[in-house]
Amino acid sequence: xxxxxxxxxxxxxxxxxxxxxxxxxxxxxxxxxxxxxxxxxxxxxxxxxxxxxxxxxxxxxxxxxxxxxxxxxxxxxxxxxxxxxxxxxxxxxxxxxxxxxxxxxxxxxxxxxxxxxxxxxxxxxxxxxxxxxxxxxxxxxxxxxxxxxxxxxxxxxxxxxxxxxxxxxxxxxxxxxxxxxxxxxxxxxxxxxxxxxxxxxxxxx
Length: 205
Description:
Blueprint (H helix, E strand, L loop, with lengths): L1 H26 L1 H23 L8 H19 L11 H13 L6 H21 L1 H4 L13 H25 L3 E3 L3 E5 H15 L4
Antiparallel strand pairs: 1-2
Helix pairs in contact: 1-2, 2-3, 2-5, 3-4, 3-5, 7-8
């Protein structure tokens, strides 16, 4: 009963999230960027909340602000509106992070800085790289226009992998992949899905 309820809850929440993501992607580049930016802010705040449980205070404001600015800069750079020089603002932000620690009575200043920066690297940077899929520099898109197809394909493959791993994991998975993080995923279903994914991607277009 509990297992069935868990599947229903995951299905409903997943369907709502998928609808929001796909809708945002199809509505245009700026709507998609706003959706990703909201995820970055939420994820970074949640990340800092988790790491602070060990008793080390992070600089949430500078961390989240840096994440926002890095994504915005990456978006406009991928859109060919600004040059790569825009990323130079990262230098004063890092300096500001060190200076802010001078005015705090924090016995773990360097750990605080490290955990703050890790949130930027772990969350903001990977999401910023998604902009390269939004405006791919490929032969068929010399002007760098917004192309939602690649981004949609990426998310569909990601969701298919996660869903397949969960369903097959609770059915016949034996050797867990990362039980502490995702108890239902196993090496068996990951290998099976990789095989089918390879076969699908090798089909002629």
